[in-house]
Amino acid sequence: MATHSIAFHERVDRALDDGSLQTALSRATDRFVTNRANALALVDDFDDLRARGRAIRASALAQLDDVLVRLSERIEARGGQVFWASDGDAARQYIVELARARNVRTIVKSKSMASEEIHLNDALEAAAFTVVETDLGEYIIQLAGETPSHIIAPCIHKTREEISELFQQHLGMPATDDIPTMTRTARTVLRQQFLRADMGISGVNFGVADAGAVVVVENEGNARLTTTAPRIHVAVMGIERVCERLEDLGVLLQLLARSATGQKLSVYTSILSGPRRADEPDGPDEFHLILLDNGRSQIMGGDYAEALLCIRCGACLNACPVYQSIGGHAYGGVYSGPIGAILTPLLQPELRDVHKLPQASSLCGACQSACPVKIAIPDMLLRLRADAVAAGKADAIERIAMAGWSQAMANPALYRAGGKLASLGTRLLAREGRIGWLPPPLDQWTRQRDFPPFAPRSFTELWAERQRRSAGDGQ
Amino acid sequence: MNDAREAMLGRIRQGLANNRAFLEREALAAPHTPPPFVHPAGDDDLAERFAAELRKLAAHAHLCADHDAARAVLCDILVAAEVRRTLSWALPAIELPGLADDLMRIGVERHDVSIAPTAAERTAHLHELEPATACISGVDALIAESATIVLLSGRGRPRLASLLAPCYIAIARRDQIVRGLGQAIARLQQHAAPDLFADHSSLTFITGPSRTADIEMTLALGVHGPRDVHVIIYG
């Protein structure tokens, strides 16, 4: 189902009403948060590592034009080809034409957020190629016809029973809920695809300019197979995902693995530099790097350039109380969670209700504390909210409420009267100290959570009394 | 070459005009040098440390006195797992004298990887390699604090020889162990100066068995790559 055509608040309602999603989300995010904390506790000085990671990423972005030129020249010098794609259309067209020109039939893919962002699979399937996602989670959601709900764990929203059902239906697996059996089934089916595939498409975690290489990080081994077995490897990289030197990876890989999954290093890190050399026994004969802009150079010039430092670890998702409750699909775009609430309005502005995503935050700051490159996410969310208001995108009710609020704030008598009224009204509606129902439009709040009644006496009343008492004490 | 290159570079430069100062300030806020290692270093023996970390990942470490002992352990693993066919690095690249005779004695067939240029030949060769049940390689370095195997591809060093089969055995000398990732990268660059990738299209770090937790966050090993990982360290 295309969740992006549904209003944001309906997507949220749907997620909050889905009991199995709630169980899966709390299990997954709890586990990620605990694993990360355990991994960080073992490190000498993780904050120092974060500071270095941020400086390394900022340095590469400060000279992004030069860094990309260096990267592309090195890759071309090693026999690789580099395609500069201004937008998703250009990237899709290049890959489709390449696959046609090389008589490709089967394409295997390892996980790539950039290719999700540009809906690459749709374009390849429309051109009649067989496209197989090979990361287990991505494969499962491809069979289900869905989209990823988490950067690191794309199918955390599905139960083992649902997955077993899919495997029985599509792969002829005998009925079982045994996870190792399901995993073995997927291995067997996907291995055949690797052996026959003509093209492998991967994402890129980091492009390393001076090495002329791209880095692909994973745990399953599907990305190694994708980039090794087929005769053509196409790597799709957002232009901001760069560092300058190989030694930068001594910082970035340490941050990425621990922040994403709590591992010291991910199981497989492949640093790939062009096609196989003449005397190498295996590896792809062709290597193509797609440098994808698709709005990133716009972000570079705007107020949210800091978001380009992101290394896509997913730590801010796991730390976020809102993400923990609504999951990835409710955000509607490819990138979810706190960083998604910033990136999606900038990278996928065509999506419905995209300006509302920055509202999906309590501004508690857990995301910034978890971020391995210390991105000031809450500050940017706040500024995006202000942008939406300035652009006239706030709801009518919100505008009226805010206008009323600012009137009241400017007029002490009105403020006190309003406070008394609200206190009286909410206490009338409260049952056992909680309000479970408010009249429309305020029911948008109470549909999903209780509202607390106002205190019987206001702060100004309590303060005035306290002043009186202390004046009395002094006599 | 495509026209979009200049257009994209132009847009990036335009964007940087607004934010370069901010980014440069952030770039100067901390040193860029990677720490040689990130966990507190005791006076622990690096081979023991590597072995302990590897076992935490549900993989197997074997510390051997010399290369004869290492060969004996390798044969034991292959016999116990009833391995008949292996994919491996070329034997001289593994640097374990006498290995060819040992493999012959225990009846293990060794396949060389040699991908041909045409699509049909490539697929046929991959199908030939697929039935192997063990991979054997040397290493370029081991990282003790994360239990990581470091491999450069190259002549006689196929990438598939650490990937395709369900069991993978890496053979290393004790003096190839470093403590941390920072040290490993520095050592590689030193040895292969000025250009690490001149003769190698890939540099791979392997840390434990292939794994996934995609179904209900439950750990499963061996999803695409090897499930059983052994590292034999000698010397």
Can you offer a commentary on this structure?
The complex is a heterodimer of chains A (475) and B (235). By secondary structure, chain A is α/β, with parallel strands linked by helices. Chain A has helices spanning 8-17, 19-41, 46-62, 64-77, 88-101, 113-117, 120-126, 136-144, 160-171, 179-196, 222-228, 249-261, 296-301, 315-319, 321-326, 337-347, 366-370, 377-390, 396-410, 412-429, 443-446, 459-473; strands at residues 81-85, 106-109, 130-133, 199-202, 206-208, 213-218, 232-238, 242-243, 268-272, 286-292. Among the domains of chain A are: 43-294, Rossmann fold (3-Layer(aba) Sandwich), CATH 3.40.50.10420; 396-473, no CATH class. In chain A, a hairpin with a 4-residue loop joins β5 and β6. Chain A starts with 7 loop residues before the first helix and ends with a helix. The radius of gyration of chain B is 21 Å and the shape is globular. Chain B is built from seven helices and twelve strands. Chain B has one domain (42-234): 3-Layer(aba) Sandwich (Rossmann fold), CATH 3.40.50.10420. β9 (268-272) of chain A pairs antiparallel with β9 of chain B.
Can you tag this structure with a few keywords?
heterodimer, A: 475 residues, alpha/beta, Rossmann fold, six-stranded parallel beta sheet, four-stranded mixed beta sheet, B: 235 residues, globular
Short note summarizing the structure:
Chain A is of the alpha/beta class and 475 residues long.
Q: Output the CATH homologous superfamily of one domain in chain A.
A: NagB/RpiA/CoA transferase-like
What's the helical proportion of residues of chain B? Answer: 25-40%
CATH fold-level topology of chain B: Rossmann fold
Biggest sheet features of chain A: 6 strands, parallel
How are the secondary structure elements laid out?
The complex is a heterodimer of chains A (475) and B (235).
Chain A: H1 8-17, H2 19-41, H3 46-62, H4 64-77, E1 81-85, H5 88-101, E2 106-109, H6 113-117, H7 120-126, E3 130-133, H8 136-144, H9 160-171, H10 179-196, E4 199-202, E5 206-208, E6 213-218, H11 222-228, E7 232-238, E8 242-243, H12 249-261, E9 268-272, E10 286-292, H13 296-301, H14 315-319, H15 321-326, H16 337-347, H17 366-370, H18 377-390, H19 396-410, H20 412-429, H21 443-446, H22 459-473
Parallel strand pairs in A: 1-10, 2-3, 2-4, 4-7, 5-8, 7-10
Antiparallel strand pairs in A: 5-6, 6-9
Chain B: H1 4-27, H2 46-56, E1 60-64, H3 67-80, E2 85-88, H4 91-94, H5 99-105, E3 109-111, H6 119-129, E4 134-137, E5 141-143, E6 148-152, E7 167-173, E8 177-178, H7 181-191, E9 202-206, E10 211-212, E11 220-221, E12 228-234
Parallel strand pairs in B: 1-12, 2-3, 2-4, 4-7, 5-8, 7-12
Antiparallel strand pairs in B: 5-6, 6-9, 10-11
